[in-house]
Amino acid sequence: MRDLFDVIVIGGGAAGFMSAIQAGKRGRKVIILERSKKFGEKIRISGGGRCNFTNLYTNKSNFISENPNFVISALSQYSNQDFIGLVKQHNIHFHEKTLGQLFCDESSKLIINMLIEELKKAGVILRNEVNIHEVFKEGGLFNVNIGVETLKSKSVVVATGGLSIPKMGATNFGYKLAKKFGIKIVDTNPALVPLTFNDTLLSKCKELSGLSLDALISLGKESFREGMLFTHRGLSGPSILQISSYWKLGDNISINLAPNLDTYSFLVERKKSTPKQYISNVMAEKIPKRLSLSICSEIGINGIISDYSNKVLEQLSEQINKWIVHPNGSEGYRTAEVTLGGIDTNELSSKTMMVKKHPGLYFVGELVDVTGHLGGHNFQWAWSSGFVAGVNA
Ligand SMILES: Cc1cc2nc3c(=O)[nH]c(=O)nc-3n(C[C@H](O)[C@H](O)[C@H](O)COP(=O)(O)OP(=O)(O)OC[C@H]3O[C@@H](n4cnc5c(N)ncnc54)[C@H](O)[C@@H]3O)c2cc1C
Q1: How confident is the model at residue 199 (pLDDT cuts 50, 70, 90)?
Q2: Which of 201, 215, 230, 260 makes an SS bond possible with 197, Cβ 3.0 to 4.6 Å?
Q3: What's the number of CA atoms in the CB half-sphere (13 Å) around residue 82?
Q4: Which helix (H) or strand (E) holds 230?
Q5: pTM above 0.85?
Q6: Which pLDDT band, with edges at 50, 70 and 90, does 306 fall under?
Q7: In this structure, are 118 and 178 located in the same domain?
Q8: Do 136 and 93 sit in the same domain of this protein?
């Protein structure tokens, strides 16, 4: 009976931890099987080492999924306030950085330690460096073949995460398992990822590398106003990462480099009030000087503002308030924070995360076709979806 469990959780990350804690608290015999040496590695590196563990304003509008209502049940069964309560219970100090994003004051390791402590309290067995060969169902039980032995259980929770950052242990295990059980998958793509550009724009990005500013980025109905960063590979920063989750090859994006400014009216007024000032210096009052110089030289305007017709001022304004760029790709899974798409939510019960046609089999976290905006929403989804599976498995 040593190899018989009530619940086997595959994947020792955020969602797997939460499932195991809840199942263990219910007195279930639970084991977590983790492929890597260390548990919770993505938690450790998250939020620049301070883990943006949730968001004060998480709600269904912060998630991308083919079924936008799918998240409602899990988020209401285990909310951001529930996780904040747990963090407070463990005396972990945190702060709101911006836009409701909650970060640890000290280190993301405190969140991992907190979860490990909860796992121990719940009696969960943790096993690392496990290589899972096969999962199949036989005689009403799931069999998980780990080479040296085959573990059996009534329930299996698959929490192996998405495809991003393969060097940290990301695998396609969960997707392959889903296919084996005949479960549909929504196409996957890197998301929350820097965007790349062709030669002309790339050289501008390289020239401005390191420069960041507040920008409003729009694509169709979606727009995000947060920081934007020029890098030697293209464009990055929170606003670009956010829009990347909506971007598809062929789409243009529109960038407002001075969201608080009607640039054309400003320039026309300054042409009257300070006609002898260099146009790039006038613009440098509103956007970083390097950027102003770069845009002015691109249009070929290096003189004083009164030298230029209103038509030229309009052209410059467009470059600032409505700069249209055409990404040629993204940095891909190598740097993406998350994976868009995944297990089709039509296959799952939103109340329990159980596969409708395979009782006892659950998929949770990033594996599922639910992708959060930047800002702590992805972890909240991992906690919430993991919780409901753990309460039912
Ligand atoms: C650099 C970076 C920073 C991020 N920062 C934030 C942030 O601050 N806030 C936020 O909300 N989100 C953040 N995210 C996203 C967040 O980390 C993920 O959405 C979240 O970790 C998903 O949880 P999960 O449990 O589904 O998957 P993971 O945390 O990826 O856990 C999956 C686990 O399964 C294991 N595994 C994989 N294959 C197998 C296998 N075959 N057998 C056994 N185990 C396996 C993996 O090793 C891993 O431990 C960040 C992501 C990255 C890459």
Answers
A1: confident
A2: 201
A3: 14
A4: strand 222-230
A5: yes
A6: very high
A7: yes
A8: yes
76 and 140 both lie in a single domain: yes
User: How many Å lie between the centroid of ligand 1 and the Cα of residue 141?
Assistant: 28
Pocket probe mutation, ligand 1, options 378, 380, 381, 385, max atoms within 8 Å of Cβ: 378
CATH number, position 214: 2.40.30.10
13 C-alpha to center of ligand 1: Å? 6
Q: Which DSSP letter does residue 67 get?
A: S
pLDDT in tens, 105-134: 999 999 999 999 999 999 999 999 999 999
Both tokens of residue 251? 């789409």
Tokens 């192996």 correspond to: 160
Give yes or no: residues 10 and 33 share one domain: yes
- Expressed as residue numbers, the domain containing 326 is 194-330
Nearest CA owner, ligand 1 atom 24: 161
pLDDT digits (tens, 9 = 90+) for 133-155: 999 999 999 999 999 899 999 99
Domain count, the chain: 2
Residue-level pLDDT at 1: 63
